[in-house]
Design brief:
The complex is a heterotetramer, with two copies of chain A and two copies of chain B. Chain A is of the alpha+beta class. Chain A is about 25% helix and about 25% strand. Chain A has a single domain (about 1-75), classed as Ubiquitin-like (UB roll) (Roll). The relative contact order of chain B is 0.21.
């Protein structure tokens, strides 16, 4: 299953790119598992996801919690807590 | 009567008075209008800044704000509500965003504007980065950290049994 | 830093955006501006009205409002606050009054504007009389009655041991 | 002691004039006593002050309660509960 990943703010800066397409590996079912898997993809990912507790996620542009299921997602985004307004 | 909802996410400046006029035009039911304007200050945590850059998640930002405004219109008897949020680089003194709410009575207009601000602060996908004014070369850029105060403010509006609505 | 306070009681219309601009001009400490505009509705208690006439107590009106604004500036860290209240005959759609508050952060600007509105409603010496729109000759004029809701709203801000500040 | 009285809104309409000068009679020490005395001055005053509990008062442009002392007052105003804003 191909999924588009998007990164914002310092998550984007640490990963070094704004977005990418990935093939979801078997056995990765939740947002939390995806973050753990991403952290193992190299130094820049390890740095971006070193503290997954403070990273927020959205599936198809809706906020989700780390335990949210990925099944069916087309676009998953990771970003720091929002600071707009 | 359905509220007239306007949401814009844009780089360009906005005109609060024109937006407010649009909100009340042609209705003699409006008795109260509350506006909030967020402005780029010249300092962040006491240190002078040269500029603020706002990054956002296109598509999600609009949808998220529209969802909040629709919820406000369900909670309070609004005649209209407008939210405009800018992105890009802004210098001190420039407007960042605005909320305007119109209702027959003031309590609804105040509560809805306050609610929208708290949710925008904690749920709308925007991120602020400041450029410090100190030093004349290679200006230091720092991402603004989310404030616990803002989460606490947003939590005021959470409905029982709907913890998904509160800031996490 | 003392807040810049502007209070006007006048027959003429006012310009919310000009007043707001004056409030923030020359300061890069302002991060939040809240405005409230009270507008003459086309109905009172569900009945159509032709006009509203506001009577006031000249001299006391200004002094009373200035006192409330000064108290707001003591309670919250305001950079500026403006209150303008009109008197005379107004038709539906016309602005009645405005409050604008400027602060570094939104909580103070919101709370001060809300506080000022509640106090103006119950303590500023103004009285509204409506002209009913029904009937084509000898329009019926009726004094608007004070609302218990407004007293309750004002009572929210009373400080312990200062019952003289609350609506009586 | 000469005092200026001012009336607003329906108190003014019922009394039939916006203001007047009075000589404060002996024995009238408070706002409440003044209202009772005024109510005895004729039909229009009786009508205006028929329900003194709902009438507000100000001494020299400051809100006061019915038990407030009049001594030293130059201007006393009577009016209904405020409805501005």
């Amino acid at each position: 299953m191909a999924i588009k990943l998007r990164y914002f703010a310092w998550v984007r800066e640490r990963v070094g790119k704004p977005d990418e397409e990935i093939e979801l590996p078997a056995g990765i079912a939740t947002i939390g598992e995806l973050m753990t898997w991403l952290a193992g993809r190299g130094e820049e990912y390890a740095y971006a996801f070193e503290n997954p507790k403070i990273i927020r996620a959205a599936i198809d542009r809706s906020h989700v919690k780390p335990q949210a299921a990925i099944a069916g997602a087309r676009e998953i985004a990771f970003f720091p807590p929002m600071t707009g307004g | 009567m359905a509220a007239i909802i306007t949401v814009k996410v844009q780089r360009e400046p906005f005109d609060v008075s024109a937006e407010t006029a649009a909100l009340t035009r042609g209705s003699t039911a409006v008795g109260a209008v509350v506006t909030f304007t967020g402005i780029c200050r010249g300092d962040e945590n006491g240190e002078p800044i040269a500029a603020l850059t706002l990054e956002h998640y296109p598509g999600m930002a609009e949808a998220e704000i529209e969802g909040h405004v629709a919820e406000a219109a369900q909670r309070w008897p609004l005649i209209g509500a407008t939210v405009i949020h800018r992105f890009g680089r802004l210098v001190p003194g420039e407007d960042i965003m605005m909320v305007a709410t119109a209702s027959s009575h003031r309590a609804a207009a105040f509560a809805a504007a306050d609610f929208l601000m708290d949710y925008l602060k904690t749920r709308a996908p925007f991120w602020k980065q400041v450029e410090k004014a100190s030093g004349d070369t290679g200006r230091e850029k720092i991402w603004v950290e989310a404030k616990a105060d803002d989460d606490a403010a947003a939590a005021r509006w959470a409905k029982p049994g709907r913890s998904d609505q509160a800031a996490e």
